[in-house]
Structure formats: C-alpha cells, structure tokens
Amino acid sequence: AFKERAVAAIRECFAKLDADNDIVVIEGAGSPAEINLRSNDIVNMFIAKIFNAPVIIVGDIERGGVFASLIGTLELLHEDEKRLVKGFIINKFRGDLSILQPGLDFLEERTNRHVIGVIPYFNHIRIQEEDSLSVGNLSVENVRWDGRWGNVRIAVVRLPHISNFTDFDALSAERDVSLIYTTDADVLRCADVIILPGSKNTIADLMWLEERGIAHEIKKAAFSGNAVVFGICGGFQMMTERIIDEGGVESSECEYEGLGLFRAETVFLSDKTTHQVLARSNLPFFNGSVMGYEIHMGVTHLKESEKHAFTIIKRSNKDVRVRDGAERGNVIGTYIHGIFDNDDFRTAFIEFAENRISDMRRRRKSIRRKSRRKRRRSVGIDWDREIDKLAEFVRKNLNMEKIYEIIS
Do 41 and 96 fall into the same domain? Predict the structure, then answer.
C-alpha cells in the first residue's frame, strides 16, 4: 500500500518537473542492483522503467574494483532493465588516463556499451555536500575547537533527523569561527553559539534532546545568556512553549512541550510551505535584508510580548508582509534556511556573538577586531560560481555529444 502511494507521489512530482523543464535528471540512490531490496524498490531501475528513462551507471574508482562493480551491476539487472543502460562514467580517477585505457576498452567490449567519460579526482572546487551522511566528518569525535583567541565557538546540535545542514557551510568557512556538530551535552557548555538546525521529524528530535540532557543545557545557556542560541525551521519550532499536532503530521500525540525559549506555540499543518523568500531583519544587530528559502509544515504563533526576528517581504517573487521567527536578546529563531549564506548578515551575526563572549576573551582579542572585520567579508563563498566551475570540469571530461545523443 505504501509503495503504491509513493509511486503515485513520484508520478505527480515528475509530471510537474516534466512540464516545466526540457530535461529531467533522475538521480539514483545506492546501487541499482540491490537484490535484497528489489521487491520494495522505489528508486533506481524501478523508476527508470516507469518513465522509460535512459540510464548511465557511475562507478567510483577511488575505492578499487570499479570494473568488477560496473560489469557485475549490469549482469544482475533484469533484461528489461539492461536495455535502458546506455553507458558508464568512472568517477574520482587519479593518475595517468593512458594506464586506465585497457580497462576502459575491456569494459566497452564486454558490455557493448560506451564509457562516456572519466572524471578525475579534484579538490580545487568547493561544493556543498549532498546529504547528511557527510555530517559525520564534522562530528565532535574528530573535530576539536582549537585554542586560538578570537575564535567564535559554534556548536550545531547533530539531531538524529537533521536536515538542510548546508545552512552552516558558510559559517564553517569563516577563519574566525570554529564550528562543530555534536551530540554531547557537555560540549554545549563551552560554546559561544548553539544552533538548533532543521529537522525531518521535529517532535522525535525534541524528545531526543530531552533524553540526552541537551535540552537542559540549551535552556541553561539561553536563560543565563552564556551563549547565543539560534534555531532554524524545526529547531525554531522546538524553541516554542508547545507543539500542537492534532492532525498527526508527525506523531499520534496531539501536543508536546517545547523548550519554552519563546512565549509561542507551533501548530503542525498537513500542507507544506515552500518558498524562496526575501526578508527584512528586525534584529538589533542587523538592519538589512536576507535571502533564503522556507520549507516547513506548520506555523508558529508568538504572544504579543515577543518580537519577530524578520519580516518576509517577498515569497516566490510575490510581494507579501509575513512575520517570521522570534528574537529575545541572545535567543533567535527563524524559518528561513540559507540565512547564513548572506555575507552581510553572517558578518553582523559573528560580531554580535563576539560581543557576548566573556569580558576576558573579549579583551584578549580586542586588538584584532578591526582588521578581522575586513578579512571576514572576503571569505564568503559564491556557490553559483563553484557550481559553474564543477559543470565546466565535468563537461571537459565527458563525451557530451554522446550525452546529448542519449538524451535525444
């Protein structure tokens, strides 16, 4: 029953994409030949068959055994799946391509399919990670705050259902910021900034915060003023007094107690809000505008005594006036993802955090603050430019004529 509903949703989404675009790329997940998962598969070859989509199989040579992997994958596919496979791409190659050529020739001869290209390993292009698997590389187990004076120590709570973690890429790139992801309540005691990120399951992650003792540390930091506490989307929802879920969007329980950092309540709705937004800041440390996006199910209602952090003035290119988020001194919440990608806002936020650090730390770094402001503005990442660089790099290493032939 679930598979039928999932396929119906996939068909609906594909129809919308197909109507608005000349080309639709369907990205697989894992291997297209997972024998043990085939009966319940709703990705990879199952979807390719539904839409009669030509398939290119990509193999990662860095781990070794790429030829066995590609040939074995093709052999394990059913005949109606094999006919969709038009070629192969080898990724993350290091070294002399001429040494690899005999293997490429063998692959083409054995499978009767083209090798469309070999993409070299690169480290000169900075690209945001595609999913939360890479957050493990930034966990507290293998990243430590160093002892340099002047560092703003930022702890992002690594929720079990964390989402949109690329919200913090620009912050982590700052020279004067030490950012880690953590599941350790003790680590939060040393943080200058605690961030509650977005969540794919707000209620489950809120319960997890309580179980781990993290909720207690967040509340202590917020009410004592020892750290700036910043929540985004699901993280902001957790910061309210209660979460109401009468429609069972996330749970069978109708109401949950939140962290109580704002006098407000969040009500879950079945309809998802998705918009590109432009918002004007109401925060005392920043009087400019920010761009970002909303993607959430629910609304948050503030009591009259609370202040909104932002006013959204454009949603999906339409003029609006929608209050967003909340602000109370060192505690800030918003529904806007991508907010730290705004260079001016990020600069102002870091300065705001610095000004709340203990008097001793502030005195020790005061002689550096003026020069640091100029240096910080120069480290913003132009993601569009980096993506363009990646696209050009890939084009140079693929047979684009063959790609276009497959598409047509």
Answer: yes
Q: What is the pLDDT of residue 374?
A: 47
Q: Which of 114, 233, 275, 308 is catalytic?
A: 233
- The active-site residue out of 275, 296, 308, 337 is 337
Alpha carbon distance, N-terminus to C-terminus of the chain: 35
Q: pLDDT (tens digit, 9 = 90+) per residue, 201-258?
A: 999 999 999 999 999 999 999 999 999 999 999 999 999 999 998 777 777 778 899 9
Answer whether 354's CB lies under 8 Å from 361's CB: no
pLDDT above 70: residue 139 = no
What residue numbers bound the domain in which 18 lies? 2-126+388-407
Q: How many domains does the chain contain in total? A: 2
Q: Are residues 66 and 96 in the same domain?
A: yes
Is 254 annotated as catalytic?
no
CATH of the domain at 173: 3.40.50.880
Q: What is the dihedral of CA 289, 292, 297, 299, to 10 degrees?
A: 0
Residue 382, in any domain of the structure: no
Percent above pLDDT 70 for the chain: 88
Check whether residue 232 and residue 211 sit in a common domain: yes
| Residue 35: closest CA among 6, 65, 72 | 72
- In the prediction, which pLDDT does 49 show? 94
pTM of the predicted protein model: 0.71
13 is annotated as an active-site residue: no
> By C-alpha distance, which of 326, 277, 268, 321 is closest to 296?
268
Residue 307: strand pairing partners? 327
Whether residue 143 is predicted with pLDDT greater than 50 in this model: the reply is no
